[in-house]
Design brief:
By secondary structure, this protein is mostly helical. The protein is built from six helices and two strands; from the N terminus they run αααββααα. The mean pLDDT is about 85.
C-alpha cells in the first residue's frame, strides 16, 4: 500500500477488517455517530477505494458486499513510514528519539512497554 488513508477511509477499512462482506448500509451503521457521513459518500469512497485496489466488492442481490484487499498490518506500516518521513525534519535520522518521544507523549502502561520491548527484540533479531 503506497498511500495514506483518511480517517473516514481507515474507519471503513476497520469495519471491513472486523467483519468482511459488509454492504454500504452495514458499513454506515457500523460507523455510527463517530463519523456522521451520508451513505452516498461512503459509496463514493468505496468505489474509489476499489479502483485503488484497497477493497474488493461482489454483488449480493441488488447491493455490493465489500472486503478489504490489504491487511491492517500493511496499512499500519504505511502510516508509520509516512510518519517517520514527516517527522524527519524534527528528529533527523534519529528514529530512537522519535520512538522515545512517541512513547513519552502520553501515559504509558506496562503493557505498552512490554509490546515495545517485544517489537524491538524482533527487529534486533532480524538485523543479526
Amino acid at each position: 500500500m503506497s498511500q495514506t488513508l483518511t480517517d473516514l477511509q481507515f474507519a471503513i477499512m476497520s469495519a471491513l477488517w472486523e467483519k468482511p462482506g459488509l454492504t454500504i448500509v452495514e458499513i454506515h451503521d457500523r460507523l455510527g455517530h463517530r463519523h456522521r457521513c451520508p451513505q452516498p459518500t461512503i459509496a463514493t469512497l468505496l468505489r474509489r477505494m476499489a479502483d485503488k485496489g484497497l477493497v474488493e466488492r461482489e454483488a449480493r442481490g441488488r447491493a455490493y458486499a465489500y472486503r478489504a484487499s490489504v491487511d491492517r498490518a500493511e496499512c499500519e506500516r504505511t502510516v508509520a513510514s509516512e510518519m517517520v518521513e514527516r517527522t524527519s525534519t524534527v528528529f533527523g535520522a534519529g528514529r530512537a528519539a522519535l520512538v522515545s518521544s512517541l512513547l513519552g507523549a502520553t501515559e504509558i502502561t506496562e503493557e505498552d512497554v512490554r509490546r515495545a520491548r517485544e517489537a524491538l527484540d524482533s527487529l534486533e533479531s532480524e538485523i543479526e
